[in-house]
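Obj.: predict assembly geometry.
Materials: sequence records (below).
Method: joint structure prediction, all chains together.
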Amino acid sequence: MKLALPPFTRTATFRLAVLYALLFTIFSAGLLIYLYFATVQYTRSVADQRVNAELDSIQKAFRDGGLPRVNQSLIERASIPDRYFFYQLTTARGTKLSGDLSGMPGDGVGWVQFPIDAQRPDGSLLTIEAEGRIVRLGDDALLMVAFDAQQRNEVTSRITQAVWVAFGVGIVLALGGGVLVSRWVNRRAEELASTAEAVIGGDLHRRAQLRGANDEFDRLAERMNAMLERLERLVKASRHTGDSIAHDLRSPLSKVRNRLEGALADDDISPDKARNTLETTLEEVDRVLATFNAILRLSSAGNASRARMVRTDVGELMEEIAEFFEPAADAVGLTFRVEKAKTAIVLADRAQLSQALSNLVDNAIKYTPTGGYIAMHMAVDKDTNKVDLVVIDSGPGIPEHARDRVVERFVRMDSARTQPGSGLGLALVDIVADVHRGELLLMDGRGAPDRPGLKAVLRLPLA
Amino acid sequence: MKILVIEDEQESADFIAKILGDAGHGVEIANDGDTGLRAARDGAFDILIVDRMLPYKDGLTLVQEYRDGGGNVPVLFLTNLGDVDQRVEGLKAGGDDYLSKPPAPQELLARIEVLGRRQPGDVPITTLKAGDLEMDLLSRRVRRGEQKIDLQPREFRLLEYLMRNSGQVVTRTMLLEKVWDYHFDPQTNVIDVHVSRLRAKIDKDFEEPLLHTVRGAGYRLQG
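Observations (raw structure tokens):
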């Protein structure tokens, strides 16, 4: 038959508690056994030594003066008030010569235990445990020295009792504590699990509760919440992307459809007009394809593995990009300045990084009006071990409240709608930065407050 | 030129065949990897156009096996839209160029022309000529007629590419890929600006222009 155990018994904590209870039991059993033997044996051996010493001294009296001397000595000893020892002297046959008892308790020599009647201080009698040793005196006498073992035996039994009680209480405490702790841990784990379950069930807003104890469970909950936060953002972003793709592509496609339908419905369409319709339609479709291309690049950039990255001098890469774009900036009447860069090595996917940087410069050229400037430079921060690739322009800039949004996919500022573009440029830079364990920072440029320009910083960790 | 198109999607294959046919090339189509490889080995083609995704044998394996078997005809890969990794893989497997689907007709034709003219095992040349324009690849000197022309390193590489393919159309994407090794589309007309700077240096003081713009396609250096 299988026993149905309560759920907390299946927790790691409970198993640990049981294990610890077991270890505790073994340890305390050892300790108690040692304690028991140490005290009991010690009291026993102390008593033995005293008995032996007493016997020695009486045997000495026997050697000095025979039995009469022994007798004399015993009489003297008997007169000591509150004496510790009992004595008994008999002939070898057992006939009493002198002593406290009526006869020798036991025959032959060695240790004996026996009950004796003793007188209480008030005169009443009681039976107590005594223990003694019998030795031969010469050939025809036996001598016993005994003592009251009652007290010692009581101590021994009390120690024994205490040992058993301590043992029992210890086990109960260990197991009980284990049960309490594991139920507590189990409850907190269940709280986290129920949060996870709620999220699995689709409630992405659900967060784990913090107890404020700042213990490992709070830390776990904190991290779990941070993870959920990021997941929720990603899910929202991809939902947003899906919506945007549908929205952004539907309008050009329906335009194409209308144009084709119109051409088809026109029975006497001139060859020139038909051709014109096809050409504009083709352009429209090419734009849709270009958008798809950008989306696919974006998702392949996000999937890029760090395994493919190589040590790349981003200073050189920046100068190449600058050299590539400088004539284009010049052609639209922009001053293009690039500070000569030092060497800065970053673990990078060269193609992706070139594209990210080129997107930033592309944007700067697109949005900076004629007569403005674009400046590029690189800055290495030795303390944080990071390198900044900076593109500054004198365009309109991006207001602070919009900066988080412009890196989202398909988000374009209203002022940018007149320019060609898919709204994926900065999203790609952001993803590339992420893949390289860096970040994209957008801030005000160097211009006046009403027209600050944009400073885009691609911050990457140095290799 | 005689071109083998290995592509399983019939519509796409027909589209490519029509573009090439209109331009005067002979085209054969194979619809899967196995027949494609056999056709490539048996027929005397000038160029192979190979789709990446094929039944029975994918494009990469096909080209690898073709190259291992000693085949040396230039290969143009057709890759899926936007997949940057496929480019690197394709070139590693023995492809000579790549183009994403669906290819723009002018782009396809320009690449085919350039690939077709590349003679495998050419003797290395040290001088390029187009009309009275001369480029010495060793001393890196350029002159037109009697006049010496000073070029920036990048302008030199741009002109070198145009001269190596003189008489043929090269597209902006081709220049971006082959001269700068960038594989993205800049939103701005960067390439045009570079070309017009170069044009100012080689054509400005001369009566006969050498560097022509081909509308809707790209540029052609014609001696």
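Conclusions so far: The first strand of chain A starts at residue 85 and ends at 91.
To do: check interface contacts against the pulldown list.
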